[in-house]
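Retro notes, item 3 of 5
We never archived the inputs for the glutamic acid complex last cycle. Fixing that now. Sequence and ligand:
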Amino acid sequence: MSLEVSKKVSQINPSATLGMVNKIAELKKEGKEIIAFNVGEPDFATPQHISAALIAAINEGKTKYVSVSGILELREAICQKLKKDNNLEYSPQQIIVSTGAKQSLYNAVSAITNEGDEIIIPTPCWVSYEEMVKVNGAKCVFVPTNETDFQLDLKAISQAITAKTKAIIINSPNNPTGAVYSQESLEQLAALAIQHQFYVIADEIYEKLVYDGQKPVSIASLNKAIYEQTITINGFAKAYAMTGHRLGYAAMPQSLATIINNLQAHMTSNSTTPVQYAGVAALESSQECVSEMANEFDQRRLLSFDLLDDIPLIKYNKVTGAFYIMIDISAFIGKQYQDYQINNADDMSLFLLEYAQIALVSGKSFQAPNFLRFSYSTSQDNIKNGLKAMKAALNLLK
Ligand code: PMP
Ligand code: GLU
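Structure as it came back at the time:
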């Protein structure tokens, strides 16, 4: 016998995004004032009418086990949303509601992978994809996006396809780059997926946060063949400021919905019942709260661009989605201030925490070792003060 623990689970890395959240909480407890540009969640309160629906559901005793895949009312509302916003036709049997889009993604990866399969992930990418793939015994094949605009590099993707390719995970609008993939690139990707018979996991959680007139395209809507090979992921966290409610969903071909339903039945069962009623209220009420939040994010995005333009040596793209900007700090590698030597993005993130009292996540866990991820999900005052402090601190590095 042996008390050896799972090799697959032990190799999972800590979450850099959630780790930073804990670190800031500790620093705040010590009385240090840190401006957080690390946070990957809307800073707004959940809209009042959504909270009211949750409380009403609890008061009405809607607190029991329900169907594993979610209450029918919510799955019907999701189908209507997908039809109206995304030009996608699904029946409620093809929708699985889960405990956050994170679980929807994990379910999707688990449902399609076998030991040794390869999953293509365009980079920079969100921190959790790699760990989800690894723990399911599959291998990540990272393919960089275009350096100038973080759009998909179709040639590089095509060269990365092998007989073992099982899927590609795409995320548009993208965390951490802010890129919104063009319709043309998604059409080309769909053609590759159909030709080589692999799945597309399309993470569309930032769909509502787009600017400059961008209209994100759902790859599954492009044609019938790609619809049959796509699992579309979405959720309530980013559009409705509901991160802590933990409510996400996936839409997929019926055969996959059946096996994912069985998987979830033995993992978590249904996601929290009253929260699902809050989800119905979110989808079926006026969407004004969504556009109000998106408008404020846009103001902050433009303000951030103005202030970043004024900081020497850094580089970034004027991106049009989500609430992230990737800041290229390559020009500072090798520079030094007192006992701080900047050798990589981790060093820069620590340096800025110490000398500018601002928190940005190192790009290392996003497969972008020369970048820091800046989230503008904070007040305009914080953006002004924080970027002023960043400029002053970077000026110290020689
Ligand atoms: N996908 C991306 C790209 C994300 O940034 C996040 C983080 N919120 C998720 C999925 C997971 O969302 P949820 O909070 O609904 O689990
Ligand atoms: N997705 C957000 C982020 O990237 C929240 C933290 C997480 O779940 O990773 O920061």
